Amino acid sequence: MRWYVLQTKTGEEEKLVLLIRKIVPHHLYNECFVVYQEQLWRRQGQNFVHVRRAFPGYVFITATDPEPLFFCLKQVPAMSKMIADGNYFFLPLEPGEADFLGQIMNDNHVVSLSYLSTDGRGNILQVSGPLAFCVSQIVRIRFGKRHVLVRLKLLGEEKTILLGIVLSEDICEELKYGKVEAPIQVPGQYMIDAVQEERNDPVRESCSKDIPDSKSRREEAAKLPAFYPGDSIVVTGGAFEGMTGMIYKVRNNSAKIGIHLFGQDMTIEMPLNILGKC
To answer: pLDDT digit string (tens) for 151-178?
Structure first.
């Protein structure tokens, strides 16, 4: 399944998605969607989670056979105008680019907030959430603005995007949703799954709104290899592919691992399905 990018006017991304779903036969493609991201904003003493378009002007579509899809897309009015204006609107993503986007977004195509734990001097100690897949690609961190600038490759070119972060002081307060550009149902309050880590070291998990029930967790965990604290592992996918480390703590479908990065020892949470035993 290949990913393709459709270009459109900023602010009309959702309109294009609806047109495609209405006009293009569904057997020609798998999904058509806009990628969104969560960012944390603080106003009048309150924290609000805004959901915004991660790539304004871009719509993503997946398909196995692009040729019939391309000719059918030419019948979509918005696409016909792009062709008439001399713009090439149908561009493929490299497999690595698609894999990266697939890793950092959830089932609603939203890149959730990532949790960061620091030493108080700006050095990252722990990471969980989407940012765990791209720590090595961080260009700049703005703790006050609650975002991280990450460099990624998209359509063969290097681009930078903002990933929203949440810190310890934020999750001690109530988080509510603010402006939501994504056509998804959201609760009135942003729920964070709080987890008590090692003794005297409280750490919060990455934000998650869709928490599977215990039966689903057990069934999914049963399909994964057994890992235990102290196991030596190698990362088999994502931004840290090829790096080795040791497991500190195992949860249902993820583990805290210790690695050496940026000249210091760090603990990072990673999904079990991209870990292998050394």
So the answer is: 888 877 888 888 998 887 776 667 777 8
Of residues 86 and 4, which shows the higher confidence score? 4
Residue 262: which region, alpha, beta or left (left: phi > 0; alpha: psi -120 to 50)? left
Count, in order, helices (H) and strands (E) of the chain.
6, 20
Which H or E run includes 21?
A: helix 13-23
Q: How far is CA 12 from CA 61, 92, 105, 230, in A?
A: 15, 21, 21, 51
Contact of 257 with 267, CB cutoff 8 Å: yes
Give strand ranges (E) for the chain.
2-7, 32-33, 36-43, 46-53, 58-63, 90-92, 110-111, 114-118, 124-128, 138-142, 147-154, 157-166, 175-180, 194-196, 202-204, 232-235, 244-250, 254-261, 264-271, 275-277
How large is the angle between the packed helices 77-84 and 13-23, nearest 10 degrees?
A: 110
